[in-house]
Amino acid sequence: SSTMSLSEAEVQSARSAWEKIYVDAEDNGTAVLVRMFTEHPDTKSYFTHFKGMDSAEEMKQSDQVRGHGKKVFSAINDMVQHLDNSEAFLGIVTPLGKKHATQLKIDPKNFRIICDIILQLMEEKFGGDCKASFEKVTNEICTHLNNIYKEEGW
Q1: Do residues 108 and 154 lie in contact, with contact meaning Cβ atoms separated by under 8 Å?
Q2: Cα–Cα distance measured from residue 43 to residue 116, given in angstroms and rounded to the nearest whole number
Q3: DSSP letter for each residue of 84-140
Q4: What is the pLDDT of residues 69-101, one digit of tens each?
Q5: Which CATH superfamily is domain 8-152 in?
Q6: Other CB atoms within 10 A of residue 146 CB
Q7: C-beta of residue 148 within 8 angstroms of C-beta of residue 97
Q8: What residues does each domain of the chain span?
Q9: Which candidate, 139, 136, 119, places its Cα nearest to that of 10?
């Protein structure tokens, strides 16, 4: 019984697309956050230690930005490993969603922003097929996160 709308073939191609970008988890995770903070400066307000950073260069060098970039990529990696097991997948997404909704109070639209930037980066580095293979996964992640937010009263 699966809440996932991905076929076995889609899971496999999503995993190989993800592997390409996950090889450099810290650098690529950092690049995604730096792009988010630069293009959507309001997202910086959630991170007290990133607030004063204005230049992309400064952000790239920051241990905190690098650390969080790596954390984001690790979380997505855990989800990608469990795309064929909805119980395990939800076991990762649910606490993450709850924490961001209740403790961190992050607007859920930011998950879509981050996913779209990951897709952009995939396309730039590895082409449109890579991006297309991963698009369904990002939709799946965002849908589940939004559901958790609704349950938490957002």
Answers
A1: yes
A2: 14
A3: T-HHHHHHHHHHHHHIIIIIS---THHHHHHHHHHHHHHHHHH-HHHHHHHHHHHHH
A4: 999 999 999 999 999 999 999 999 999 999 999
A5: Globins (1.10.490.10)
A6: 16
A7: yes
A8: 8-152
A9: 136
